[in-house]
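Researcher: Good morning. I'm working through a list of sequences from a screen, and I'd like to move beyond sequence-only analysis. For each chain I'm collecting a predicted structure so we can compare shapes side by side. This is the next one on the list. No need for commentary yet; just the structure.
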Amino acid sequence: MRTFKSFALGLIVLSVAANLQAQSDDEDTLLRALQDEMDRSLAELQLDEEPPPYFISYRVVESSSVAATYTLGAHNRSNGSRGRSLLVAVRVGSKELDNTNFQFGGFTASRGLPLTNSYEELRRSIWMATDSAYKQAVSNLSSKRSALESQTIEDRPKDFSDEEKYTWMGEESFSVANSNEVSAIARELSTSFLGQPDLFVSSATASSRASTTLYLDSEGNFNRYENGHCSATVFAKTQSTDGAELQDATTTYARKCSDLPDSDSLKQLGLDLADRLIALRNAESLDNYNGPVLLADKAAAQFLGLQLLGLLGASPIPVASNPTMAQSLRRNANPFMDKLNARVFPRFIDVVNDPTLTEFEGKALLGNYHVDMDGMPSRRTELVANGMLRALLTGRAPTKSSDMSTGSNRGLRSPYPGNLFVEARDALEDDELRTELRAYAQDYGLEFALVVRKFSTRQDFFSDPVAAASVGFGGGGVMTAFDVVKLYEDGREVPVRPMSVSNFVVSFFKDIVAASTGRTHYDMPLSVGSSSFASIITPSLLFEDLSMRSAGEAKPKLPLFPHPLAAGQ
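Model: Good morning. Structure tokens for this chain:
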């Protein structure tokens, strides 16, 4: 059987290589090295009496990036990089019981590959990574079998799903932007902070990234595609009149730099950021608040990005080496896995993941993708209907509720959405939503309610690592609400210092009592430097009851002298 698989896979890769005539000879050399080493490993790789691999996959990502940062029109720094990495996955045993889904993991190995396509050096690097992954896989399978002998696990799903073979050859091409183009974007964007002496620190960063991915495995799955993104980030920092540090960033993304908003629109991002921070310098402080909160526009999408997306994937609870660890793993499992066919949202909310869509209202959806990291095709999945959780996203690790992949392995700890659409029936216009908010505040006996328009999240800082390092985000999913206002009965809005949502639990999603007719589109990168995104399209959301508290900014002493750009300095 292994010989047949190797032969069949060889035919597929040869066919693919023939279709890549427009590609360089270098890529053909890489494919040949991957195929030859996979054939050899499937035929010969075995440690003593241990089982040989029954599955091997290779994933190669070659990426290039450039970035530039400017302050007030002055060039601060630039950098560029190019690299190639290999991720090897090896499974031993069988699909019913293999080395995966064990508390220590370890069935993959990563390694850098040479950029120069020397067949001999490629084979050596692939060999070393495969050998490392196999040895770890054998060790894990032995430990997993021992653990299963000492405990009873009822209805344990098998470890690897049966899927139809899939081949994907992406047609879209990406190349990293010219460094001069990236610098021009950052330089122009940084000038939006000129004439703003109340901002003590500011910067603008533009970056471009492009990558090519090759994936093949011993089941005959193969894909090749290119990906990329361009980003523009504005960052600023100041202090309030009592010394509290205030800092925020905003990033906009596009697949290519030519698709970014025009220069005036980008500069408006900086102007809006400056206006928010300057308004906060003299804003009121609010120690804590309990009551109705409207997450308006972008804030609703950002909030769902942190609090919901990680709950939408189903992964099996790993086998543990002892009962104490098993109990801990069960306790920390995704709570949504126990809520299938239960209500998790109000009845007027539906949630759908559809990574196959490419745009929403004329704007590109960066959460669109064709294949996941298992080489499986992406699929539309209805997750929540009438507030009831009907399905969860899956990879190739079966669970008790699902034995097939939804094509949702995005390389994170659990399966993850691509394009997430939140839809609301009986939605309200914006003025009606604010009226509803004030009515709830009256019911609570409050003089005002809170409206949040923007959270400051890690994703906003991803394109500027220096700015990200200076922010100091809290753990445990803490988000800072940077655009918060008190909304009074007469319609007055009074800015409030940054606050954070406290003690949020998943059952609070059922406390959403209204939503807007309009929806906001928000693109969220999955990790620093990655071109993988989730796109969230959601209405504004009115929570009947949320707890918020002061973000508690540090208060260093103010500068002794005013900013040199201040009048007369």
